[in-house]
C-alpha cells in the first residue's frame, strides 16, 4: 500500500508557559512520521515537499530511520526552511508566528507521486502549501481511479500579518476547496471561522457532504472528535469521546497525527468509523509528548491489534 503526503515542512519552536522551549521538526513531518510508525515495512509513504538547501541533508538523515519512506519527492530550494514559533498561553490557546513560508508545492512535483498511490493526504500546514488550481489537478488526476483524497484544512483559515503572526479569517473560496474529496478535517476553531456566512457545524456538514465529499471530521482536543458521514444521501453524526482526558502535555501536531492515522487505517480497512476511532486514540496518545521528538512511540498503535473506540450518534 502507498500513501502520498503533501504539505509544508516546519522547524518548530514551541514555548509553554513556565517550561523550557522545545525545538523539533513540525508541519508535514508529523504526518509523515506518523504514517511511517503506523504502517508496515512493506508499505510506502511518499512525502512531497521542499526544504531549504541548508536543512536538506539533516532531514533526509532523520527520515532514513524509516525504511518505508521514499524520499524521492522531497526537493531542495534556495533560502531557509519555514520556521514556526508557537507560544502557548494555555493548553489550547496559542499565538503562532510563521517566517519564511515556502512557495506552493508545484503540480509537476506532485503529479509524478500520485499516479499509483492508494490514498493522498493533503495537509495545509502553512495554508499556502498548494494552490486551489493544484488541488483541482489532483482531483482530476485521481478521478478515474477513485483514489481517496483527504484534505486537512488546518492553516487554510489563517491569514498572516506584517509581523508574521497568524490570525483567523474566513475562506471565500471554501466550497471550491472542499468539494469532491473523500474527507476533510477541521478543528473547532477552524470550522467556526471557515465560512464568511459563519455557518454552524451542522449546516456546514450538510453543505460539505452535499458537494460529493463523503466525510467531515471535527476534532475537539480533550473532548474527542465528531464524524459527519454521508450515508445514502443522509448525514450521520457520530461523537467520539476523549481518550484518557487530562493527560495532554502538548497539543502541537495532534491534528496532523489524527489525519495521518485516519488515512493509515482507512487505506487498509475502508471503514470510516473504525478509522476515525483509531485516529482519535492515536492523536490523544501523541498529546502526552512535547513536539515531535518522541513521535516514534506511535509505533505501539499496531493497526491490526487496535480496537476502535466507539461513540454516540
Write the layout of secondary structure elements.
Elements: E1 2-6, E2 9-16, E3 22-27, H1 28-38, E4 44-52, H2 53-63, E5 74-77, E6 83-88, E7 94-99, H3 107-111, E8 119-123, H4 132-143, E9 149-152, E10 158-160, E11 166-168, H5 174-178, E12 183-187, H6 188-193, H7 201-209, E13 215-219, E14 225-231, E15 234-240, H8 254-269, H9 272-286
Parallel strand pairs: 1-4, 1-8, 2-6, 4-5, 8-9, 9-12, 12-13
Antiparallel strand pairs: 2-3, 6-7, 10-11, 13-14, 14-15
Brief write-up:
Helix content is 29%, strand content 27%. With 313 residues, it is of the alpha/beta class.
Task: Explain what the structure shows.
- This protein has helices at 28-38, 53-63, 107-111, 132-143, 174-178, 188-193, 201-209, 254-269, 272-286, and strands at 2-6, 9-16, 22-27, 44-52, 74-77, 83-88, 94-99, 119-123, 149-152, 158-160, 166-168, 183-187, 215-219, 225-231, 234-240.
- Helix 8 packs antiparallel against helix 9.
- The protein is built from nine helices and 15 strands.
- It is of the alpha/beta class.
- The strands form three sheets. It has a nine-stranded mixed sheet, with helices on both faces. Strands 3-2-6-7 form a four-stranded mixed sheet.
- The protein has one domain (2-294): 3-Layer(aba) Sandwich (UDP-N-acetylmuramoyl-L-alanine:D-glutamate ligase), CATH 3.40.1190.20.
- The two termini are 31 Å apart.
- The relative contact order is 0.15.
- The longest helix is centred in the C-terminal third of the chain and has 16 residues, at 254-269.
- It is globular.
- Strand 4 (44-52), helix 2 (53-63) and strand 5 form a beta-alpha-beta unit.
- 29% of the residues lie in helices and 27% in strands.
